[in-house]
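Please go through the sequence line and token line underneath and see whether the fold suits the sequence. See right below:
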Amino acid sequence: MHFDKVALVGVGLLGGSLGLALRARRMAAHVSGLVRRDASIRECLERGAVDSASTSMAEVVSGADVVVLCTPVGDMPAMARAIAPCLAPRAVITDVGSVKGSVMREVAPKLPAGCFVGSHPMAGSEQAGVGAARADLFDGARCAVTPSAESLPGVTDAVEGLWRGVGAEVMRMSPELHDAWVARASHLPHVLAAVLAHDVLDPSMAAEVRRLCATGFRDTTRIASGHPGMWRDILLSNRAAILEALAEWRDELAGLERLIADGDAEGTERFLAEARHRREAWTHSPRGPHADSSSSATHA
């Protein structure tokens, strides 16, 4: 699939990686990027993420046949309102946000009818900014595409073609199912990593505890380094599904706690063996993790 102009509203990790991938694969004649500061224009151009960059929404979006919102979820309604007067006829609009229900409810009504289809590439890093962008970020990664009843079929096809073109495997689903599933697959892991880092690395904890933290602790808490503002928006926007996932997790933890309290060696080992088996089955499955994907995606 080839586009005349793709506009990236935000050129950070995901927007920058998408720009690099589009340009490397020659999928767009021109890639433009919206940045917040004049100083960012040179960085984006030197990184090769875009053909042009500007702080002017009209300049970036004008004439684009595809516009991708690559901002935090909380900023997307305002961005949609700002791009609406600048859109070319029949422009296709999508996003990279980690929450889809609230985005579909709050973004789509501010745009021309049927032109917006949500998407969420399950790829990313705890790092941020265009300096961390990579052209191969989406290779083999899953990307959820979430049309609504109002989405035009051609728009959905174009959004899916965009993500397939940069190497992603597309999974079409409803916004509601996306939020329920991603609450467990992506948002819950971030919450648990954040709680673990917040507790164990508390300054009131003995310094020896921090000194004893090694690779296991580092790997388990890596995604807690994600951008706090972005994750604040994600957790609050998907609060119902995340609270449900947390309740399920507390039940699992309580069950393990009872086994340990009872000194149940057989039950404790069985629990750990089942967890190990499930993870190894997932890891070695063709539908398992992509080596370069991260639950701290995107997601925006």
Observations:
- Residues 3-173 form a domain with the Rossmann fold fold (CATH 3.40.50.720).
- The chain has two domains: 3-173, 178-283.
